[in-house]
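Worked example 2:
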Amino acid sequence: MPTAGMFGARVKRLEDPRFLLGKAQYVDDLKLPGMLSVAFVRSPHAHARIKSIDPSRALALGGVHRVLTGEEAARSCKPIRVEFDPAKFPGEYKPCDFPPLAIGKVAFVGDLVAAVVAENRYFSEDAVELVEVEYEPLPVVVDAEEAMKPGAPLVHEEWGDNIMMRSEIASGDSDRAFSEAAVVVAGRFQMNRHCASPLEPRVVLAFHDPALDRMTVWSSTQMPHMVRTKIADSIDYPEHKLRVISPDVGGGFGLKAHIFVEELVLAMLSRELCRPIKWTEDRRENLYGSYHAKDELCYGELALDKDGGIVAVRARFIGDIGAYTSFPWTPSFEPLQAALQFPGPYKHIHHIKVEAIAVATNKTTSSVYRGVGAPAGQYAMEHLLDMAAAKLKIDPAELRRRNLWCSDDFPVVSVTGLKYDSSTPLESFEKGLKIADYEQFRKQQAEARSYGRYLGIGFSCMVEPTGFGPETWHAMGVSSVSGFEAAHIRVDPNGGVTLSVGTHSHGQGHNTVYAQLVADQIGCNVADVTFIQGDTSATPYGWGTWASRSAVAGGGAVLTAAQRVREKIFRVAAHLLEVSPLDLELRDGLVQIKGVPGRGITLRDVAHAAVYTANVPEDEEPGLEASFYYKTPNPTANATHIAIVEADPATGKVRVLRYIVVEDCGRMINPMIVEAQIAGGVAQGIGAAILEHLRYDESGQILTTSLMDYLLPSAADVPPFEFGHLETYCPISVGGIKGMGEGGAIASPVAVANAVSDALAPFGWKPVNRLPMTPELVHRQASA
C-alpha cells in the first residue's frame, strides 16, 4: 500500500481479518494448567447487616478449595477509595470505602459477600448456594431526592447524610437576568439509568507463580497499567513483579476503565493458593453487579430575550450514584460533567447558576459510561431550547442559528469555565440542515400529517472537550488519574516497525490509525507495522482508552515518536549519501536528494545501517527508535445531530427513519473509522432514548436482570447513517487532532427526544420529561 498521504486516508482496518477468522483471543479463552474457578456470594438485600457467615457446608463440598469473606479479605487488601485535594476540588466531596468483599453490612442487591474457589465453575456456583449468610435487613433508599432528605436511611453512616459531592458554578447575576427576561422556560428532566452492556462481560484470570515469585493478571480492561498499579498498591505486591495483560476486549465503553473489586479478590486468592484462578461475569451479574450510569435528574431553566437570544441559565443536576465509589473517577463526575457542559455551544449566555449533587442510594454503583454526564446536560439544554422555540413561536432551527457560536468566535471560555480552542458549531449545523433538506422535510411532514402519519425532526448541537490530560486532573485536585500518553517505535534492521503504546484498542481501530501515522512519517507500509498494546511488560506506561482521548493522546504520542524516528532517518541517510539532511525528502518509500529523482536509499537500507552495522554519524547513537510521553491537551470537538422519526400515537412505537451527523473532530486520521465510531455511539444513544432502563422496586430489588427485561437496540432499531465532516485544525494538539469517540452517544438521545416531541406536536407540543420514551410514554404524550 502506498505511504503518501496516509494521514487522512480511508484505510481498511488491519485488525479485522483476525477477528473475522475467529483468531481473536479473549481472557475467557485462556485455559491454564491447574486453573481454578471463582464464584461470588452476592447479597439478596439492598441494605442489611451481616450477622454471620457460615461457609462450612460449602467447604465440605468436593472440589471446593477456599471460601473468602470480607473480614479475611480486609486483612490482605485495602478498599477502593478515591481522595481529592479539597483545596482544588470545585465543591464539597466525601470519600468512602468500597471493600473487596462486604464487611459488616451490604449496600445493594448484588454486593459481594464472599468468594468461593473450586475446581471448576460448576463446583463454585453450587458451593455459593451452600454458604449460609444471616442478614438483618435495614431501611432502604432508592430515590436520590428522597435520599437527600433529613432522616433518610444512610448508605454510609460516617457521612451523616447521603451526599457524596456538591458543587456550584455561578457567574453574573442569574436572578436578575431571569427576572428581566422576556421569556423563561423550565423543566424537570429524568435521564434513565442504563449501562454499557459490552458483548464480552468482565473477565479476570490471576496467577501467582511461586517458582518465579511473580504474578500475571489477565483482565478485560481498558486501562492495564492503572490496574497493575492499583492491584500492587491494594494487596501490597511489588509492582515490578506484577504483569497485567489485557488481550482482545469485546467492548468497554468506559465500564472497563476502572479497577474492580473482583480483580483485587482474584489477585489475593491466587497469591494465597498459588494456582491460576478465573472469574467470568455472566449477563445477570453484568446487569446488577457492574457499574450503572446516567441516572441523572435535572431541574433546568432558560431565560431568553424577545428575539430568542439565551441570556441566562439555571440548573440543578442530581446524580443517583448508587452505593459506593469507583476508581479512578468516582461517580461524582456524572452530575459534575453534566453541569459543566450544560450551556453547550451557545454564545449569548453571560449569567449562570448550576449545581451538581451526587447522592448515594442502595443501588448498584454508578460510574462512567460513554459520554459520562454530558448526555444528561445535553438532554436538558437541547430540550429546553425546543420548549423555548415553541413558546416564542420560532422555528427550532432558527432559534439555534441565533445562538450558536461560529468558528470566528473561538477560542472562548464557556460560562462554566471550560476552555474551547476551536470549533464550528454554526457551520456544522448549517451543513446538517442542508443534508437533511430541512425545508423540504417540513413540506413532507405537513403532507404526511394529512394522511395520519406523524413525522418529526430533532436537533442536538454539541461541543465536547476531549483528551483530558494532566492539566484537567491537576486543576481539580484529582491524583487518581493523570492522563498523559506514551508510544515507542522501533525499526528493525530489515525495515520492519514495532509500535507499542499505552492506550488500549477494543474496537476503535488503533492498529490501523496508528500505523497510518507511522507510515505517513517514515515511509513504511502500514502492513509493516507490528502493533503491541495491553501488556504492561511490553508497552510504555500509559493511561489506556477512555474519554475521546486515544486519537489525541495516543495519536499525538505516536506521531511525535514517528517524527523523531523520521528525523534520525534523515540524519543517517544524509551520512550515507554524504549530503545535508536539509537536502533530503521522503518520497514513495525512498529517502532521496531533492531534485535528483532516483538518487536515494530505502528505509530498509537506512535501518540496516543504523541498527545492524552502526554506520551512523559520529555523534549519533546506533539504533533507530524513539519514545514519547505526551502531556495531553484538551481539544474541543463539536457536532450537529439531526434525527428524523415517525411516531405512532396509537401504539407509541417510534421508528428512527434518518439520522444525520456532521462532526468536526479536527484532522481525521481515518474518516471511515471516525464514521464507525459515530455510528456505534449513536446506536447506544438510540438505545438510551427509547429502550434501555434499569428498573428497581421500592425495596431496592433490581427488576431488569436479563436481556428480556433490559432492552438493547438491534439492527432493526438503527437506521443507515448520513455523515458530513468539517476538519478544523486544532491549534493545541499534535497533528491538529481532536477526539470524537463519545460524541455519538452524547448528542443522540435528545435528538431523538426532540424529534418525537416534534412528531406529536399536532396533539399539542409537550416536552419529553423522562427517558426512555417507551411506547406507553409516547402514547401518553399523544393522548394527554
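The chain has 21 helices and 29 strands. The chain has a mean pLDDT of 97.
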